[in-house]
């Protein structure tokens, strides 16, 4: 078995690593909020749907799933934006594989949005 190669950027451990990781995460959320209209739209949707889930007369489990799918749609959009950023970083030149990567990221978000709609409709229409 080959020895595992460890990135020189992975040297932090313990609380210092958690603090650094939190900073990177907040920076990523800031980038997404400032530069990604789709993320802002999904965040607005979540800011409406998540409180609504707590107002509706549903079970704890149903509420957890309703909130979870909203958060999942935000996660998928962050991955989609990351894929697009990496593809654009590699080359702005048109390439079929670049198009495929971006289209697949978009498809993932499309499926996530359908999942939000399906979960909410199934729970509300029972």
TrEMBL record:
Its main location: membrane. Pfam families: DAGK_prokar. It is a multi-pass membrane protein. It is found in: Cell inner membrane. CDD domains: DAGK_IM. Its cofactor is Mg(2+). It is an enzyme of class 2 (transferase). Keywords: ATP-binding, Cell inner membrane, Cell membrane, Kinase, Lipid biosynthesis, Lipid metabolism, Magnesium, Membrane, Metal-binding, Nucleotide-binding, Phospholipid biosynthesis, Phospholipid metabolism, Transferase, Transmembrane, Transmembrane helix. The chain crosses the membrane at residues 37-58, 65-87, 107-125. It comes from the Bacteria. Its EC number is 2.7.1.107. Catalyzes the ATP-dependent phosphorylation of sn-l,2-diacylglycerol (DAG) to phosphatidic acid. Involved in the recycling of diacylglycerol produced as a by-product during membrane-derived oligosaccharide (MDO) biosynthesis. This is Diacylglycerol kinase.
């Amino acid at each position: 078995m080959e020895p595992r190669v460890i990135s020189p950027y992975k040297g932090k451990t313990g609380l210092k690593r958690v603090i650094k990781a939190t900073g990177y995460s907040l920076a990523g959320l800031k980038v997404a909020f400032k530069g990604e209209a789709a993320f802002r739209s999904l965040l607005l949707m979540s800011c409406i749907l998540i409180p609504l889930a707590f107002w509706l007369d549903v079970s704890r489990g149903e509420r957890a799933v309703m909130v979870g799918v909203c958060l999942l749609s935000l996660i998928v959009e962050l991955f989609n934006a990351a894929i697009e950023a990496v593809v654009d970083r590699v080359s702005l030149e048109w390439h079929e594989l670049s198009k495929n990567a971006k289209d697949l990221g978009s498809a993932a978000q499309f499926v996530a949005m359908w999942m939000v709609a399906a979960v909410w409709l199934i729970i509300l229409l029972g």
